[in-house]
Structure formats: C-alpha cells, structure tokens
C-alpha cells in the first residue's frame, strides 16, 4: 500500500459512515392511530396508481393516496375500470356540479368544504370516483371528522399532489379526452432486493476481513524475517511495520461519532441540489481511492513487477507503475457514474464504488482490540438510534431518514448508500443500506479474523465464523423489523450491534480470553532472538 493512503483514511471513514442507517422506501399501506376510525371510515391509507390516457394514447402515471372512507381501491390492474375523467364545475365540488356526470371520475379542488362532503356530492351527481387535487405538492391523508357518526360513501376517493392535478387540469382545459384507471397493487411478500442486499453486505465483510487478515499475516511474516536478519534494527521496526495502516483508539472512536453527528446535521440543514453535488464529488474521490486500491491489490498478483516498480510523482511521492496505469480508469469510471447517476442503471456504478470504498477503509483503518471495537460500536449504536428516532423530538422529523432520502435536494438520496432496485415490485423504487451498517461491524469482524489467524484457531474454535453468523442474523432481523413496521426506515445498528458485539463478548468471556482480547487484541509472541538465546 502506498504512503498516500494514510492521509486519506479519515476522509474515507467520514464519507463512508455518515449515513449508517438502513432505509427502504415507505410502504404502500399505512396505519395511523391519530386519524379516527369510524363506521364507514376505516380504510388503511394506501398509495394509488392513477394511469392516464390522453385521446386514447397511454400517457403519464401519477401516484395518489386513498381516503379513509369509501370502498377499498382494487389491487389488480385487470380489475380496474378505465373511466372518463371530467373537471368539476364548480371546481371545489361543494355544491351540485353544473356539468353532466354519468359514471365518470370527477376531478375536484381541495378546499371550502370537507372531503366527505365532496365525495357525497360527487356520488349523488353520478360520479364513479373522485380525484381531489391537493393545494401543495405533498400528499395528504383524507379522514372523517370525529363528529361524523355514520359515513356511507360508495365511491373511491383519491388525493393527488398539486403538480399531478395541475397537469390533468391543463389537459382537460385543452378539450382533450382523458381517461384514468385507479388501482393499488400489493407489494410482494418477500423483497428480492433485500435478499441481494443482505448477500452483498455479508459478502463485502467476508472479503474485507480476509483481505485485512491476509495483509496482516504477510506483514507479520515480513516483520519476523527482518527481526531475524537485522537484530540491530529492532528499535526501528515498530515504526516501519505500521506504515499503511491506521489503528484507531478509544478517543478517536468517540470523536468520530461526534464529528459524524456534526456532519449529519450540516447535511440536514444545507440539503439542496448544490450540496448533494459536493457530496457526489466527495464520494467520487473516496470511490476512486477505494477502486484504485482494490484493483492494485488484485492485479499486483499478476503484474508483480509493475506493482513493485515506483516513480516519483509531484505531490504524491513514490507511485507504482501499476497504480499509474489503473488510476485513469478509476477516475473515468467515477466521472461517468457522476454524470449519469440519474439513469436507471446508475446503481451498479454506485455499488461498485461504494463496495470498493468499504473494502479499502476496512483494510486501512483497523480496530486494535476489543475495547476499541466495543466503544466504537456502542457509540455508533447510540448515534444510529438517536438520529433515526430521537432526532424527531428536536427537529420534528427523523434527520437520518431525511438525509438518506435526499429530501429537498431533488436527488434520489445521498450517494453514501448501497442500493438495488426492487425489480419485482409493481411500485418500483430501491432497497438501500448505509455504508456504516457494513463498515462499522466489519471493522470488528475483520479484527476477529486477524486474531483467529494470529492465534492459529480453526474456524469453529475462533471468533470470525460466529461474528459473521451474528452479523448476518442481526441484518436479517433488521429486514424483518423493516417489513413489520410498514417499510419505515430502521436503524440497522440497533439490531446488528447487540448480535455482533454481544456474541464476541460472550464467547471471549466463556473461553477465558476476554482480558487478552479487550486489552492486547493479539496473542503473546516471543521475540525470535530471545527464543534463540533461550535454546
């Protein structure tokens, strides 16, 4: 590893874990205890697809939300009727419409009277359904008043956002024929994207741990050779052997969470299109560094001479010829992703850059013992819970989820996430996981494999296998909780940390190795020269 990796390590760590929350797009079905349920007004709030045809040509599809009242929206597209859409006159539909309605869907404005009043008047006029245009871009839950004791409405009511309603209104004003189809398809019971994300997260930690342990063992072998061949240089070995790796300590673990919290608040306050552009640039810098490091480590096995031949480059110092050859590709790859990141296939490039970044950080930044790992994960555990749940008390919304989704930025979330499209979901969207949910537990799991190899433990007697099983189980429980809670964003570390850290601490205590794991983090080793003298 080149000396230029060390200064970049803090930047890579901050970029990678500023958003360590698992977030999946909101579910299509919502329960809301604050909205009263009354006879005839007890529907769950569901998202509704509004497919449109202009002059019998299929056009835009809008998304609205179904009302508490009225019959449930059909879930199958084949069961949904294609019906003529007309604009109410008067537009608020608080009095009997002047235009003739015969089984049509009525487009009305929000305001003046209650939602249930609009629906009753539309139904009495002969409408088959009612689309209500909201007075803002967001959707609004249409409920019944608490004093409405008997709600008997037999047509469906759907709220549309302001921009969707305005678009339909403009088309109708141009005397074009508009027909609509209303339905609310169910999501599949099992999200295949979540399965792939689980495999991706577990596989990334597995590869990163093996790479970290392998590098550590090679460095230990090289160190031992140097000790045998150059006993007079013993005093200089400690500094020489530590190059290329950053061992974090307890204070830096605590400071990291404090700095990450400050950075998260800054993201929340400054969230906008231009600020996301800055994040994209930072992500590309980290991604280029990560991709370059991974490719150099992989290709140096086949191009050993190019990897061991160096040339001096201004500002960067000694750089291998292999690094010089690979860097243009990495920069081009990141630049192409940044330019086309809004395309449907851009998630592939984002995941490649993200995984490379995570692999590199776990390789460069290391947990030296269980004490530091416990402090780091405990702080991250509290950080995750606070910014997902408790931040709502101070900011009136979840700061972590707002940042992860990229609200107010015009972008589809911040780039510090791995994501996979929900390909078999009729609603589309992405399942996503924050870098920190992989990287932070990965630092501890990589430490467990380094310890196992250093102590020559087999897979069953070591800590790595059980730490991996614990991590996979914790992440699996996270997805279960996610689906049980209607798709609302979950702090993954709430489940992962107790599983992973709890398993490690329990095994260490049971085996009587907790003290050594906690303080030293490595087995007792006898210097070869002392061993030789003793013989």
UniProtKB/TrEMBL annotation:
Signal peptide (residue range): 1-25
Topological relation to the membrane, as annotated: Multi-pass membrane protein
Pfam families referenced in this protein's UniProt entry, alphabetically: PA, Peptidase_A22B
One Gene Ontology term of the molecular function aspect: hydrolase activity
Domain of life: Eukaryota
Keywords: Endosome, Glycoprotein, Hydrolase, Membrane, Signal, Transmembrane, Transmembrane helix
Keyword Membrane set for record: yes
Presence of keyword Glycoprotein: yes
Subcellular location per the Swiss-Prot or TrEMBL entry: Endosome membrane
GO cellular component: endosome membrane
Domain named PA: residues: 90-168
Stored SMART domains: PSN
Residues that span the membrane, as ranges: 195-214, 245-268, 274-303, 315-339, 372-390, 427-449, 461-480, 492-509
Purpose of the protein: Intramembrane-cleaving aspartic protease (I-CLiP) that cleaves type II membrane signal peptides in the hydrophobic plane of the membrane.
Recorded family membership: Belongs to the peptidase A22B family.
Record-given protein name: PA domain-containing protein
Annotated source species: Dendrobium thyrsiflorum (Pinecone-like raceme dendrobium)
